[in-house]
Design goal:
The protein has 19 helices and 30 strands. The chain is of the alpha/beta class and 649 residues long. The chain binds 5'-O-[(S)-butoxy(hydroxy)phosphoryl]adenosine (WT7).
C-alpha cells in the first residue's frame, strides 16, 4: 500500500492555483459564472437578469426565469437514462428498508401532488410538514414544490407549542404528520403532539396523516378528527400525473425556522432558482459528485442540512441519497457504519457532535465494517476539534478521504466556506474550513468593520450576495435587514455586508477558522438554540420570575444550555421544582432545548439599564475573570451565581 498523503501534510505552503482561478473568475464576473452553472438545470424560461441588485439587501437571482424544483430533482433524470436508478434508499430504525428508483419517486411525487391539488392547494399557499425521517417527507416536499406550494418542515423533535408557533407564522392551511415515529426502539406519538398543536393553530383546515408506525407493527391509538383529519392512503389516487408548475425563480420554495437572539424563531425564506443553483453547485465543488455516488447525510430533514444535502442536492444531481430513520447508536454504535457498508456509501456527511459520540464507543465498532467505498467525509454545524477530526480522518476514512469541514447556515442555503475537492483539494488543517467557495466574498473584520489582521479573532462577513442566500424573513422584512445587514453595512456608501454572527479568524495562509457564535445563540449537538427562547420558556412557568441561559462547553455536544433562575415570591428552590422546570422546557420547546442544569439564584447580574449580563454569568460559570464590570448594577449578583454553582457541586 502506498501511503501517499493526499490531504495532509498541513505544513506545506501551497498555492491552490486552480481553485484560485475559479474563485477569481467567480468574483470578477459573477453573473456569467453563475449563469453557466444555472444552465445545467432546466428552466421553462431563461432569466432576464442573473442578479437584480436594485433593492439591496433584497437581492433577487435569475429574475424573469421560470423553473420547478420537483421537475429538476425528478423528471429531468427520466430522460437521462436514470429511471431505474435508486433515488432514495431508506433504512428504518428497526432495520426495514425501502428503495425508490427515480421512476418510482416520480410516480409517488405525482400521486402526492394530486392529493394536494385535490385539497385545493395551489401556488402561493403554504403547507407544514411534521414528519419523521421517512420517504413520505421528501416526497411531500417535492409534491408541494411541483405545485409551487411553499412548504415548511418542522423538525419532529419539536414540541406542540413550537409546532403551533411555526404553523401560525407560516399561516399553513394544511398540516401533514404521521401516526408516530420510531426513536431508540420507542414510538413517538406525533399525531397526538400535532393535535395539541392544532388547538393553538386555527389556520389549519386539513390534516393528512401518514400511516407509519402502526403500519409497521406498533400498537398505538390514532385519533382522527372527522372532517379535518385524513389518512394519506385514503386520499392517494392509484396513479396520477400532475404537471409541474413553472414558478418564478424568486418564488419561495420553502420557509425554515431557525433560532435567533429573541424568543421568536425566524422564518428563513429561500427562493426556488437561486437556492437550487447554489445547492447544485456546492454539491459539485464540495462533494465532487460522480454519477454513481451514494450519499449519506445523517442530518434530519427538519434542518437545513437535510433539505439541502439529503433531499435537493443529491436528487438534483441524479445520485442516490440514503435516509436513515433512527439514532446513530441504536441498537448498537455501529449502526451508521453498517449502513455505509451495506449500501456502499461514497459521500458521508455528519456533525462533529456525532463524531465525538461515536469516537467514545471506540474504534472497534468502525473496524467491524468495510468502509472502503467512502470517498469524501463531511462535517457541519459547529467547529470540529482536531482530535475528532483526526479520528474521523484516520479511523473512518482510512486516511484516504478528505474531510470537508463545511461552514454555512440555514440562511445561506448551502455550503459557503469549505474545501472543494471537486475543484481542487488544498492541504487540510484540522479545524479549518479552508477557503470560501467560488462567488463567496468572505472576510474577517474587526469591531469597526475594518479587515482583521491574520491570526486575530474578528467577525465573519460576506461582502456580496450569492445565489443560495435567504430572500427575507417570512412576514418580517425589517427583521431581515436588522439581523443580517445592519451590523456592518454602509448603505450611504452603497456597501451591503452580510453578518452571519460568527466569530472567525484568518491565518497567514488565508485559511478561515470559524470560532463560534458571536450572538446569544448556542449550538447544542450542532443544533441552533436561542438562549432567549429557553429563557422565555422558563419564564412562562408560574414559579419563574426571571431566567438567564448560557452555553456551557460539553465534551460531546459542544455546548449545553445552563439556566439561572430567579423564583417568584412564594416559591422555594427544590429538586422537585427543578425537575418540573426541566419538564416544562421539554413541553414548551422540545427535548433538544432542555437545560443540563438549573441553578436557583436570588438575583441575576444586570446592567444599570436592566439587561441581563450573560457574558458575565458565563465567565463565572467557566471560572474565568468576568472582564469589564463597569456597567454591572450590583456586584452581589455575581456572588449569588458563585454560591449557586458551589452548592450544586
Ligand atoms: C451555525 C449555523 C448549516 C448547517 C447546520 C447548521 C455553526 C456551521 C460550521 C462549521 C464551525 C459551524 C455556525 C453557524 N457552524 N457549520 N463547519 N464550523 N461552525 O445550521 O443551525 O443554521 O447553524 O452553525 O455558528 O452560524 P444552523
Amino acid at each position: 500500500m502506498t501511503s501517499e498523503p493526499k490531504t495532509l501534510p498541513t505544513e506545506a505552503r501551497f498555492i491552490p492555483k486552480r481553485l484560485e482561478e475559479v474563485r477569481k473568475r467567480a468574483l470578477e464576473n459573477p453573473e456569467e459564472f453563475f449563469a453557466e452553472i444555472a444552465r445545467e438545470l432546466e428552466w421553462f424560461k431563461t432569466w432576464d437578469k442573473v442578479l437584480d441588485d436594485s433593492n439591496p439587501p433584497f437581492y433577487r437571482w435569475f429574475v424573469g426565469g421560470l423553473i420547478n424544483a420537483s421537475y429538476n430533482a425528478v423528471d429531468r433524470h427520466l430522460k437521462r437514462g436514470l429511471r431505474n436508478k435508486a433515488a432514495i434508499i431508506w433504512e428504518g430504525e428497526p432495520g426495514d428498508t425501502r428503495v425508490l428508483t427515480y421512476y418510482q419517486l416520480y410516480r409517488e411525487v405525482n400521486r402526492f401532488a394530486a392529493v394536494l391539488e385535490n385539497l385545493g392547494l395551489r401556488k402561493g399557499d403554504t403547507i407544514a410538514f411534521y414528519l419523521p425521517m421517512i420517504p413520505e417527507l421528501p416526497i411531500f416536499m417535492l409534491a408541494a414544490a411541483r405545485l409551487g406550494i411553499t412548504f415548511t418542515v418542522v423538525f419532529s423533535g419539536f414540541s406542540a407549542k413550537a409546532l403551533a408557533e411555526r404553523i401560525n407564522d407560516a399561516k399553513a392551511k394544511v398540516l401533514v404528520t404521521a401516526d408516530g415515529g420510531f426513536r431508540r426502539g420507542k414510538v413517538i406519538e406525533l399525531k397526538k403532539i400535532a393535535d395539541e398543536a392544532l388547538e393553538m393553530a386555527p389556520s389549519v383546515e386539513t390534516v393528512i396523516v401518514v400511516k407509519n408506525v402502526t403500519a409497521r407493527g406498533a400498537k398505538i391509538d390514532v385519533p382522527l378528527t372527522e372532517g379535518r383529519d385524513y389518512w394519506l392512503h385514503n386520499l392517494l389516487p392509484a396513479h396520477a400525473k400532475v404537471d409541474p408548475v413553472p414558478v418564478e425563480s424568486t418564488h419561495p420554495l420553502f420557509i425554515l425556522y431557525t433560532s435567533g437572539t429573541t424568543g421568536k424563531p425566524k422564518g428563513v425564506v429561500h427562493s426556488t432558482g437561486g437556492y437550487l443553483v447554489w445547492v447544485y453547485a456546492t454539491m459539485k465543488w464540495v462533494f465532487d459528485v460522480k454519477p454513481d455516488d451514494v450519499m449519506f447525510c445523517t442530518a434530519d430533514i427538519g434542518w437545513i442540512t437535510g433539505h439541502s444535502y439529503v433531499v435537493f442536492g443529491p436528487l438534483l444531481h441524479g445520485i442516490t441519497t440514503v435516509m436513515y430513520e433512527g439514532a446513530p447508536d441504536y441498537p448498537a454504535p455501529d449502526r451508521w457504519w453498517q449502513i455505509v457498508e451495506k449500501y456502499g456509501v461514497t459521500i458521508f456527511y455528519t456533525a462533529p457532535t456525532a463524531i465525538r459520540m461515536l469516537m467514545r464507543y471506540g474504534e472497534e465498532w468502525v473496524k467491524k465494517h468495510d468502509l472502503s467505498t467512502l470517498r469524501i467525509l463531511g462535517t457541519v454545524g459547529e467547529p470540529i476539534n482536531p482530535e475528532a477530526w483526526k479520528w474521523y480522518y484516520t479511523v473512518v476514512g482510512g486516511e484516504r478521504c478528505p474531510i470537508v469541514d463545511t461552514w454555512w447556515q440555514t440562511e445561506t442555503g448551502g455550503i459557503m466556506i469549505s474545501p472543494a475537492p471537486g475543484i481542487q483539494l488544498v492541504p487540510l488543517k484540522p479545524g479549518s474550513a479552508t477557503y470560501p467557495l467560488p462567488g463567496v466574498d468572505a472576510d474577517v473584520v474587526c469591531e469597526d468593520g475594518s479587515p482583521c489582521p491574520p491570526g486575530q479573532r474578528g467577525y465573519l462577513v460576506i461582502k456580496r450576495p450569492w445565489p443560495g442566500m435567504l430572500m427575507t424573513l417570512w412576514g418580517d422584512p425589517e427583521r431581515y435587514v436588522r439581523t443580517y445587514w445592519q451590523r456592518f453595512s454602509k448603505p450611504e456608501e452603497g456597501k451591503w455586508i452580510y453578518y452571519p454572527a460568527d466569530y472567525a479568524m484568518k491565518d497567514e495562509d488565508g485559511y478561515f477558522w470559524i470560532l463560534g457564535r458571536a450572538d446569544e445563540v448556542i449550538k447544542v449537538a450542532g443544533h441552533r438554540l436561542g438562549t432567549a427562547e429557553i429563557e422565555s420558556a422558563l419564564v412562562s412557568h408560574p414559579a419563574v420570575a426571571e431566567a438567564a441561559v448560557v452555553g456551557k462547553p460539553d465534551p460531546v455536544k459542544g455546548e449545553v444550555p445552563v439556566a439561572f433562575v430567579v423564583l417568584r415570591q412564594g416559591y422555594t428552590p427544590s429538586e422537585e421544582l427543578r425537575h418540573e422546570l426541566v419538564e416544562h422546557v421539554r413541553k414548551t420547546l422540545g427535548p433538544i432545548a432542555v437545560p443540563a442544569a438549573i441553578f436557583f439564584v436570588e438575583k441575576l447580574p444586570k446592567t444599570r439599564s436592566g439587561k441581563i449580563m450573560r457574558r458575565v454569568i458565563k465567565a463565572v460559570l467557566l471560572g474565568k475573570t468576568p472582564g469589564d464590570l463597569t456597567t454591572l448594577e450590583d456586584e452581589a449578583s455575581l456572588d449569588e451565581i458563585r454560591r449557586a454553582l458551589e452548592e450544586f457541586k
